[in-house]
């Protein structure tokens, strides 16, 4: 890390040729990023993919203008200088992260890319005394502002309101299928299925530490089981439910959290205090499940609450009866 910082140049120490070379490499990198965004979105969001294809072409055109300017002023050989070579220069996310970004995240990232470049060039121009360099930086800032305007023009051309609404609805549906649905199933399983063993152990032993250990084992075991089951039973190709790894993580983590919620109170040594708090946590968990069902699955809230609370109450009663019997 120290060696990497040692060999980074300050922006103020760059020559005009190096500033121009840096702008050329930055435009080239941004064009590649936009093309990676377009490729990532092409299958599911073709209208948005067309926007980023157009933005990549715009970056190519600016890069070519910069190259022509460099050829006129400094000749054919362009120095190799990139963002990572300059201290304080704005950074870009690695291209491979495009595979994990949502549609909204990609839109926000693209806007941030143009805004960061524009702001950087404005600040650099304000700190520069040399007239030619100041003009060059001002021109680059104006070019970045033009990119943003061109992006809006591309969106209006390729992404009208109806197409954007369709893509937003598709993105929301994919989010629900990949994250919400398996996460909700996990939360329901973890919250409800662990009620019986945890409260049976609690009332049978009235030992808070033993109850906590049983609850932790039940929660973690259920989380591992649910996670692997969700990931293994559907690869997402035919169903369109998305990455099995993401669904497995959502299901496994939420299952574990659902069980641990009412196991953690048994870290309190006093049995009745711990049990009262655990019951309150169960109540919160069940209402949270009903809210998620209403918010994302469009299940009427009262029906969701009745189903979840009734089911949870029956499992809770079974645990208390077995443990107290």
Please describe what this structure looks like.
The protein has 325 residues and is mainly α. The chain has two domains: 2-159, Ferritin, core subunit, four-helix bundle (Ferritin); 166-324, no CATH class. The chain is 77% helix and 1% strand. It is built from eleven helices and two strands, in the order H-E-H-H-E-H-H-H-H-H-H-H-H. It has helices at 2-6, 16-41, 46-74, 103-126, 131-158, 161-193, 195-205, 208-233, 244-261, 271-296, 301-324, and strands at 9-10, 86-87. The protein has a two-stranded parallel sheet. The longest helix is centred in the middle third of the chain and has 33 residues, at 161-193.
What's the number of helices? 11
> How many DSSP-defined strands?
2
Structural class: mainly alpha
Q: Kindly state the mean pLDDT as a whole number?
A: 78
Low-confidence stretches: 1-5
Shape: elongated
Numbering strands along the chain, what is their spatial order in the largest sheet? 1-2
The major sheet is characterized as: 2 strands, parallel
SSE topology string: HEHHEHHHHHHHH
Radius of gyration: 28 Å
Distance between the termini: 63 Å
What percent of residues adopt helix (DSSP H or I)? over 70%
How many domains would you count in the coordinates?
Answer: 2
Strand percent estimate: under 5%
């Amino acid at each position: 890390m120290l060696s990497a910082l040692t060999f980074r140049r300050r922006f103020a120490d760059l020559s005009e040729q190096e500033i121009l070379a840096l702008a050329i490499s930055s435009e080239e990198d941004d064009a590649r990023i936009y093309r990676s965004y377009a490729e990532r979105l092409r299958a599911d969001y073709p209208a948005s993919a067309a926007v980023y294809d157009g933005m990549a072409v715009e970056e190519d055109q600016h890069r070519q203008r910069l190259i022509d300017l460099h050829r006129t002023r400094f000749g054919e050989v362009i120095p190799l200088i990139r963002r990572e070579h300059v201290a304080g220069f704005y950074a870009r996310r690695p291209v491979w992260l495009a595979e994990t970004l949502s549609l909204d995240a990609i839109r926000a990232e693209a806007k941030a890319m143009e805004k960061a470049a524009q702001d950087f060039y404005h600040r650099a121009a304000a700190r520069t005394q040399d007239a030619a360099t100041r003009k060059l930086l001002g021109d680059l800032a104006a070019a970045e502002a033009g990119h943003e305007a061109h992006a809006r023009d591309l969106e209006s051309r390729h992404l009208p309101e109806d197409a954007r609404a369709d893509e937003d609805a598709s993105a929301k549906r994919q989010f629900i299928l990949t994250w919400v649905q398996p996460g909700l199933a996990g939360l329901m399983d973890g919250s409800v299925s662990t009620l019986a063993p945890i409260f049976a152990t609690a009332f049978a032993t009235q030992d808070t530490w033993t109850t906590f250990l049983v609850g932790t084992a039940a929660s973690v075991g259920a989380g591992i089981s649910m996670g692997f089951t969700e990931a293994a039973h559907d690869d997402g190709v035919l169903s369109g439910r998305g990455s099995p790894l993401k669904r497995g993580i959502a299901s496994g983590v939420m299952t574990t959290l659902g069980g641990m919620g009412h196991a953690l109170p048994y870290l309190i040594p006093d049995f009745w205090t711990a049990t009262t708090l655990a019951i309150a946590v169960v109540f919160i968990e069940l209402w949270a499940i009903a809210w998620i069902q209403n918010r994302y699955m469009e299940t009427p809230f009262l029906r969701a609450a009745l189903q979840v609370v009734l089911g949870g109450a029956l499992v809770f009663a079974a645990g208390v009866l077995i443990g107290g019997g």
